Structure formats: C-alpha cells, structure tokens
Amino acid sequence: MGTTRLESVPEPKYWQLKSVLTQALDSEFSVGEVLPNERDLAARFGVARATLRQALEQLELEGRLQRRRGVGTTVAPPRMGVAVGSERDAWPSAADDAWQLSGCTVATAPGAVADLLQTDREESLHVVRRSRMTHGQPVAAELLYVPDASVPDLPVIGTAAEAARARSVLRELQRLDLEGQSRTVELGSAGAEDAKELDRLPGAPVLVVTTRYHADGLTAAVSVATYRADTCRLAFGASGGVEIHHGPERRAS
Q: Over the stretch 140-190, which tens digit does the pLDDT of each residue have?
C-alpha cells in the first residue's frame, strides 16, 4: 500500500482527507470490510491522528462508515429508505407491522416534551416504547408520551404485562379524533439507552424525529423516534413536511 500525501488547499485538512478516504472506500474496500487501524491510516495519508479521527467521524456521520463493538470501523452498506409518516395522518397503532411494542411505563417526560404537551414537568405520563427493524437489523427506537388527559377511559392496567399496557394505551388513542400531526427532524448523538437498542456505540450519529399528534386543538401525544443515521435515509409522505431552518428564517419543503 503506497503513501498518499495531501496538497495544501484552503479547505480544512480533515475535509480534504475525507474526500481522499471516500475515493479509497469506493476503489479499495468492500461493504463490511474492516479499515486498518488509525496509526496505519494516519501514516499512509501523512496526517495527525486527530485529523484522521475528524475525517472518520465525518464519514460515519454521512453513513459511509460504521463503528461496531468488538470489530472496529467498517465500510457501511448503502443507506436504506425508511418511510416516515404516510399520505394519511394516523395514530400509532399496535397493528403497525413496521413497529414492535416493547413495553409501557409511567414516568415523567423530558422538559422539552412536557413543554410540547403543555403539561407540568413533574406530571407522570404513559410512555410507550416501540422499536423498528428493517432487513433484520434495528433501525429506530421510539418513545411515545401520552398524558392521562388523552386517554381518560384507559382501563385500570395495574400489574398487567408491559406489552399489554402499551396496547391498551394505543387502543385508547384511536378513540380520539386526530386533527393532524407535525414533525421536526434533528441530527443528534445516541445516548446510552438508544445506543444499546440500536446496537451502536454511544455517541453514534442519529436522526431524531419528533412528532406531535393534535386532537381537540391540543397536542395529545408526542413521539420521539431515534433513527440510525448511518443506515437510514428518511422518506416522508405527502403529509410529512420538514422544516428547514436558516438562521432566523425558516421555510418548509
């Protein structure tokens, strides 16, 4: 393997290195192949390991590389298209084959979610957990926050199994007249729980899709779904407009 030196350009050095690495990934490596260690890569391209790490992190962010526990950094397969939303607004359903129910607990919501629901931050909510698999691998983990006021006729669930409690909450949501839903998408980093569920390392890039479900003029429930950014590209239906922020301005696409 020869040595490739970088020329002086106005771009940051790690960005130029990213371009060189991209060419190497396309010509020298196959999907799933493990990259050489950082020391060898830094020596090959004549850069500091800190510069190399920046380039590798950017390629991971773009879905070209994956960091795998006990394996190392591997070449990622092409991103899969994952549908988000549909042409028709609908409540989350236990009958949705794309998602698997994993449980339901009663807990307080993060401050940002409580603000969206306009509830007290100390108020307990029903928190339904779901996961999504595509082609045999986990691609998303979701937390659905539902206040008592949205499911006032929820049967007493007591010590029922968590999956049964989750189905009860989703079934009661169906009784509400859904007026619409709105979504935002942000780039984030996987926390410990999400990383475990998605089989990623903590800090791995993720796409966080927050959905607000509207009924009776209020936000009746909030979903926070965390998608793997290394394998997913999100495809929105006709009802799923995405807000793009440019400083103080914003426009819808």
A: 999 999 999 999 988 776 656 888 889 999 999 999 999 999 888 888 888
Cβ neighbours of residue 168 closer than 8 Å, sequence gap 6 or more: 104, 154, 155, 157, 160
What pLDDT does residue 186 have?
86
Beta strands in 147-230 (DSSP E): 180-189, 205-215, 218-228
Q: 90 vs 124, which has greater pLDDT?
A: 124
Which of the four CATH numbers 3.30.565.10, 1.10.10.10, 1.25.40.10, 3.90.25.10 does domain 13-75 have?
A: 1.10.10.10
45-50: average pLDDT:
92
| Overall fold of domain 80-252 | Chorismate lyase (3.40.1410)
E strand residue ranges, 35-167: 65-68, 72-75, 80-84, 99-108, 124-134, 137-146
Give CA angle at 30 (28, 31), nearest 5°: 145
